């Protein structure tokens, strides 16, 4: 209790636990449990890590499609929307409103911005996701719903900042054009196959 620390979720006093076996951690002074303490602390720490790092690893995104013709021939193709990369951020803002919603994080780079949502217990709702996509915003989700309750700061940093396995694109406007290209490729392949079959029939 000497540190005067309180739980960021329920504001109850915390006591530092410093043993020789387990990693040091804080616990509620009272015996009553705080059901949202883990969610809140992971959420806050993740935002802080990105804010301090001023960069984030972004996952790759590819699109694929396939169709089956009447004679059983499969036509397929794929396009790369974006490669995995590390993006530097010139500015990071937390819980700042944009349009009529409030993302967890807004990262700015090269005159652009990326909205970052931290998913611990609650995913982005369908209405908010629709608004994000209608505004053609670039948006990313970091899924921390299954992280260990005793995860340390360094491990969380590897997931939230440097890793890509727990990340997925919620909205990527460039994917719309790539979908169009993919559809045109499939249609071109279907046309080419049809023309080939017609030539073979004419022989």
Give an overview of the whole structure:
The protein has 203 residues and is α+β, with helices and mostly antiparallel strands. The chain is elongated. It contains four helices and eleven strands; from the N terminus they run ββαβββββββαβαβα.
Span from first to last CA? 90 Å
Please give the count of helices.
4
Order of strands across the main sheet: 7-8-9-10-11
**What is the element string, with H for helices and E for strands?**
EEHEEEEEEEHEHEH
Q: Report the uncertain regions.
A: none
Which structural category fits the helices and strands? alpha+beta
Task: Produce the secondary structure layout.
Layout (H helix, E strand, L loop, with lengths): L13 E4 L7 E4 L8 H17 L1 E4 L2 E8 L5 E9 L2 E4 L2 E4 L10 E5 L2 E8 L6 H9 L3 E6 L9 H10 L4 E5 L2 H29 L1
Parallel strand pairs: 9-10
Antiparallel strand pairs: 1-2, 3-6, 4-5, 7-8, 8-9, 10-11
Question: Descriptors for this entry?
Answer:
two-stranded antiparallel sheet; 5-stranded mixed β-sheet; 4 helices; 203 residues; alpha+beta
Structure at a glance:
The protein has helices at 37-53, 126-134, 153-162, 174-202; strands at residues 14-17, 25-28, 55-58, 61-68, 74-82, 85-88, 91-94, 105-109, 112-119, 138-143, 167-171. By secondary structure, the protein is α+β, with helices and mostly antiparallel strands.
